[in-house]
């Protein structure tokens, strides 16, 4: 590589090996900021030429947002993360860049289910950064799919700018930690109004420890299948049926996991270790579970008794919905009845089939009405612009009907068909 002399500042990634560790995508936006350039410029002039692969060259030669839309991969454990670690390490002359990704989890969990596609943040973390160190940065923990609360502040992570209502991709041309990349508003505050329940607090305590182990441990291939096999053999008398009954997963899926034919996604790994009441490393080291299996079966019997009592109530409720053709989805019904959707479908297949068809029909009608209304809106906008003698470009139309509303192809086609005839008249 020829760029050795034009290396970037050697700033240190924040919080390595702690739950507050910075993400690589966030580190890249911070690098751009300290050099007084945008992420887009950093990407075009230094990162893309040094990676020099098709997926990234497109943003330089063709423009467009294709790469940014999938930029969550930068923080993951695949080829893109590997390329980015290499190039950023080279440009900053640092050897610790890999710690800002989940590169160490390659042999533990699949990419599917690992990372969120859009940006999440904790306003309290941003505000604390601003008031304490002045160095505002994005945490790696915010990017994980199963994490919905800040590990420090126990408050829900946000994903929509409260000012312009936009969501953001993990990395964008104008990304800047702590600010909206669209309207540039500050995103930090201490205004958390949600009271966290005890259950959630326990879950968060567990997740905090889990996350720390996740980023600090080096995992080996087949760690998970070996552990699953061990627990099936030693705690479920070698019976897969008993194990899936306890963990509550489909038998065939669980079989694939224990055979190493597929890997359980992160949320499943969290769930399994939680059910065994074990830390991640204890699970992988096949330590004795802290859970009492006897308690589990007693709970299950009590639950079964309760369910049979509720059986009548459920049947009555379903019959009303079928009879009155109410537009409820199965998930909504399951939620109201506080029972599992799959269980409903298994026990009441006929009622559920009917409910499903009825719901889909109602939704289709609703959608058609909505489309009709929307096309009327486009008509009105075309008419208004025509009256004012303005060319009805998509941008002008969207100024009236709302930003991004012509995104959907059917509406774009409708606009295209109708703007022509409008101009001719
Ligand atoms: Zn926070
Ligand atoms: Zn905004």
Structure characterization notes:
With 425 residues, this protein is mainly alpha-helical. Among the domains are: 3-108, no CATH class; 374-424. Helix content is 55%, strand content 0%. It is built from 18 helices and no strands. It has helices at residues 24-34, 39-51, 54-61, 66-69, 79-92, 123-132, 198-216, 223-235, 240-247, 251-258, 266-276, 280-284, 293-324, 330-337, 341-347, 349-388, 394-401, 409-424. Helix 2 packs across helix 5 and helix 15 packs across helix 16. The structure holds zinc ion (2 copies). One zinc ion (ZN) binds at residues 161, 163-164, 166, 180, 182-183, 185.
Taken as a percent bin, the fraction of beta residues is under 5%
Give the helix/strand class.
mainly alpha
Largest sheet: none
Bound molecules: zinc ion
- The total strand number stands at 0
Structural shape: globular
The portion of residues assigned to helices is: 55-70%
From the N-terminal CA to the C-terminal CA, the straight-line distance is 60 Å
What is the string of SSEs from the N terminus onward? HHHHHHHHHHHHHHHHHH
Task: Supply Rg.
Answer: 26 Å
Low-confidence stretches: none
- Rounded mean pLDDT score: 88
Number of helices: 18
Write the layout of secondary structure elements.
Layout: H1 24-34, H2 39-51, H3 54-61, H4 66-69, H5 79-92, H6 123-132, H7 198-216, H8 223-235, H9 240-247, H10 251-258, H11 266-276, H12 280-284, H13 293-324, H14 330-337, H15 341-347, H16 349-388, H17 394-401, H18 409-424
Helix pairs in contact: 2-3, 2-5, 13-16, 15-16, 16-17, 16-18
How would you briefly describe this protein structure?
The protein is mostly helical. It is about 55% helix and about 0% strand. The model has no long low-confidence stretch (mean pLDDT about 90).
């Amino acid at each position: 590589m020829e760029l050795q002399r034009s290396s970037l500042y050697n700033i240190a990634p924040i919080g390595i090996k702690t739950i507050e560790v910075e993400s690589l995508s966030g580190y890249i936006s911070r690098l751009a900021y300290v050099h007084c350039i945008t992420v887009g410029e950093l990407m075009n002039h230094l990162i893309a030429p040094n990676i020099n692969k098709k997926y990234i060259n497109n943003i330089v030669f063709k423009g467009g947002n294709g790469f940014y839309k999938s930029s969550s991969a930068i923080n993951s454990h695949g080829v893109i993360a590997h390329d980015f670690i290499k190039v950023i390490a080279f440009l900053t002359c640092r050897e610790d860049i890999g710690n800002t990704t989940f590169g160490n989890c390659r042999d533990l969990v699949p990419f599917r289910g690992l990372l969120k596609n859009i940006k999440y943040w904790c306003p309290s973390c941003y505000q604390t950064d601003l008031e304490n160190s002045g160095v505002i940065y994005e945490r790696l923990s915010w990017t994980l799919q199963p994490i919905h609360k800040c590990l420090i502040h126990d408050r829900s992570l946000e994903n929509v700018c409260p000012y312009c209502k936009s969501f953001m991709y993990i990395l964008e041309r104008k990304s800047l930690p702590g600010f909206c990349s669209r309207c540039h508003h500050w995103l930090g505050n201490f205004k958390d109004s949600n009271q966290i329940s005890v259950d959630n607090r326990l879950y968060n305590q567990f997740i905090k420890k889990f996350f720390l182990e996740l980023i600090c441990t080096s995992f080996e291939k087949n760690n998970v299948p070996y552990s699953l096999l061990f627990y099936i053999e030693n705690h479920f008398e070698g019976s897969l049926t008993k194990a899936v009954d306890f963990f509550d997963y489909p038998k065939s899926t669980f079989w694939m996991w224990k055979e190493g034919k597929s890997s359980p996604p992160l949320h499943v790994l969290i769930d399994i270790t939680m059910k065994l009441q074990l830390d991640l490393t204890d699970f992988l080291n096949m330590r004795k579970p802290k859970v009492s299996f006897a308690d589990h079966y007693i709970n299950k019997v009590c639950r079964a008794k309760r369910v049979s009592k509720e059986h009548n109530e459920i049947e009555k409720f379903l019959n009303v919905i079928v009879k009155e053709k109410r537009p409820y989805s199965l998930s909504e019904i399951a939620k109201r009845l506080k029972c599992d959707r799959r269980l409903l479908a298994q026990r009441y297949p006929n009622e559920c089939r009917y409910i499903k068809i009825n719901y889909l029909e109602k939704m289709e009608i609703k959608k058609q009405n909505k489309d009709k209304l929307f096309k009327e809106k486009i008509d009105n906008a075309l008419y208004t612009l025509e009256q004012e003698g303005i060319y009805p470009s998509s941008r002008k139309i969207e100024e009236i009907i709302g930003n991004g509303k012509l995104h959907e192809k059917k509406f774009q086609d409708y606009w295209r068909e109708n703007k022509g005839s409008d101009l001719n008249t």
